[in-house]
Amino acid sequence: MRVNCELCLDRGIVLKGDVAVPCSCSGKRRFERLISYSLLPKKYLGCSFEDFKFEYYDRNYYDEEKAISCYDLARIAYQAARNFVNSFLKNNNTDGLLFTGPVGSGKTFLACCIANALLKKGRVVLFTVVPEFLDQIRATYAPDRDPEDLTESDLVDAARQVPLLILDDLGAHNYTDWTLNKVYTIINYRLNHCLPVIVTTNISPLDLDNYLGNRTTSRLLEMCKPYRLLVDADIRAIKRREKDMRGC
């Protein structure tokens, strides 16, 4: 695999001691490289806080546990996301965020709003869909892999050391001891080095340890402030209907 920069191997970051910093190769195309390195899904490239629609969150549908409406929960999570961006720009070692809620409640969208806001400011972000990331690590063991492809160490080190890591869909998967250990080593490293993480999950904080184990859950809850998003209907399904009605 041909690389353009031997210093950072086109990852956009290099290590200075234990800290990951942007590589000097960035130059005029730095933003494009940051976008490429971030691994943000095409669907979410460019989405911003201004695109976040509160109309999808019912003022009359309540979280029974907290007696707060979907709308108010969304307002709280939205403001936390904006506050995180401001805090991170001042200090990379700010607390992270844990967005919980059912499928289609806007968790990933809000996390990507954070990513895009920081990318525009030239900050390095890595977005990873957890099941896909674990599959990528497994693929490094394939007997027919290209010797020049990224190794397990490359992938895990990037997740450990990037200034901001977004772990999307840290959900109720069939984790093995091996995958749980990979997640733990990343979370533990980031906790010890005061590097924030944004997490989206459909698991409530109280149930996380049933899937991730006590060690990982304890560290996540120490690192991240939890926020819940709740909807009475899947936002993706609503958008699909809206698109169909427009005939596009």
Sum up the structure in keywords.
alpha/beta, Rossmann fold, 248 residues
List the helices and strands and how they pair.
Blueprint: E1 13-16, E2 19-22, H1 30-38, E3 62-63, E4 68-69, H2 70-90, E5 96-100, H3 107-120, E6 125-129, H4 130-139, H5 152-161, E7 164-168, H6 177-192, E8 197-201, H7 208-212, H8 214-223, E9 224-228, H9 235-246
Parallel strand pairs: 5-8, 5-9, 6-7, 7-8
Antiparallel strand pairs: 1-2, 3-4
Structure description:
This protein is an alpha/beta fold and 248 residues long. It has one domain (34-246): 3-Layer(aba) Sandwich (Rossmann fold). It has 9 helices and 9 strands. The protein has helices at residues 30-38, 70-90, 107-120, 130-139, 152-161, 177-192, 208-212, 214-223, 235-246, and strands at residues 13-16, 19-22, 62-63, 68-69, 96-100, 125-129, 164-168, 197-201, 224-228. The strands form 3 sheets. Strands 6-7-8-5-9 form a 5-stranded parallel β-sheet, with helices on both faces. α2 (70-90) runs parallel beside α3 and α5 (152-161) runs parallel beside α6. The longest helix has 21 residues, at 70-90. It is globular and about 55 Å long. The N and C termini lie far apart (39 Å). The model has no long low-confidence stretch (mean pLDDT 86).
